[in-house]
Amino acid sequence: MQPVNLYSFRKKVSIYRKYFIKYLRKVEKLKPAGLDDLAEQLNAEVWQEVDCLTCANCCKTMTPTFTHKDIRRISKHLNMRPKDFKERWLKQEKKDPDWVNKIQPCQFLNLSTNMCSIYEVRPDDCAQFPHLTKKKMIDYMHVHQQNVTYCPATYKMVEKMMEKIKIW
Prior knowledge:
The chain is mainly alpha-helical. The protein has helices at residues 6-30, 35-49, 57-61, 68-77, 82-89, 124-128, 141-147, 152-164; strands at 90-92, 99-101, 109-110, 115-116. It folds into two domains: 6-59 and 129-164, no CATH class; 65-127, no CATH class. The longest helix has 25 residues, at 6-30.
């Protein structure tokens, strides 16, 4: 497994992003048979090639959605009241009631190691990211369309999917 080269990844995304998104939209429309099984297979292959600890681009450039359950669990872990945790670290967008990080990169990311300081109690959104094997995969195509820009694992999965499902 080779370390993720974020410079190279960003360059590839700048070139192929629109093509990948168009491909995923087409897959979403066609709903090919066996997609969930293929996702499981590709997921195993992707994690043989991508090491998140050499990347952490998701933690550097995105924010998870913090559920009320996440907020209670993490604040307890940090010996804080949920109200204090939200005031210190989170915000709500006016048009969306979800709680998200106030800052980027994530306040819990150690930038020298790319490790999460609250890994064992991290938000469910983080624990499930990049959602490669969500059942039914077809229902998560919109998520993959977003994540292909930020996540080398998602990008790699779409590359591999393009080799297996020819739609052009």
